[in-house]
C-alpha cells in the first residue's frame, strides 16, 4: 500500500508511520524539516520525505503517484472566527489540490476530539471528489503521549493543585495500539468512505480519576489539592512553572479539561467490533 502522511510530528502520526513501515507499506511523509524528522525517525527503505509548506505551496518534490491513502493530521484547533481556522482551510485546500493530481484513493482527516469539525472543512472534503473519512480521536495513552507526559510532569511536584474541572471533566482515553488498530481498519476501506467517526476507549473517566490511577500504577504518592475555582490562565501558568510543561501544551491541556470530551457516536464499533484496552491496561503498557 502506498501512503502519504502529513503531520508526522503529531504523536499518533509518528507512531502510525512506524506501524505502517512494519507492515512493509511504502510511506511518504510531508514535513517541514528533514533534520527534525530524522532526529526521531530512522531512515527506512520504504520511507521517503517531501519537505514542504502547505500554506506557501512550496515542496521539495512532487507527491507520489497513485496514492492509496493520504492521512492529514490537523495542527489547529478549528475555532470559528480564529485566524488558525483560515490557515487550516488554506492548508487543507492546497493539500486536496495536490492529492487530486496524483489520483489519491482515500483521504483521512484526523483531528482531536475537542475540535469541532467545521462546516468549511466538510465542504472542502465533499467537493474534493476524493473518498474521505473524518476521524476525531480522544486522549491517547501511550509511551510519551501528551497525556502521559502531562501526568508525569504533574506528579513530579510534591503537591498537585487542581480545580473542579480536573476533578469533574470526563473523557474516553484510548490506548495507542487501539487508536492505530482503528486507523489501520479505516485505511482504504470503502465501508467508511464519506463518513465521520469518533474513536475513544471503553471507559468514561475524569482527569482526576486517571491521574490517581496513574500515580497508583507508577507507585508515586502525591497530595492533590482541589480548589473550587482556578482560572485557566493560572492552570496554564502553574503547569508550566511547576511541571516544566511548555506553555502551549499546558494551555491546550487546561483548555482540554474545561468540559467533557466524549465520543458523540460509537458507530465505528458496528463496522469494527474491536475490544479496546482499559485505561489501567493502557497505562501499564505505556510505563512498562
TrEMBL record:
The source's domain of life comes to Bacteria
- SUPFAM superfamilies xref list: NAD(P)-binding Rossmann-fold domains
Protein name from the UniProt record: Uncharacterized protein
Originating species: Albibacterium profundi
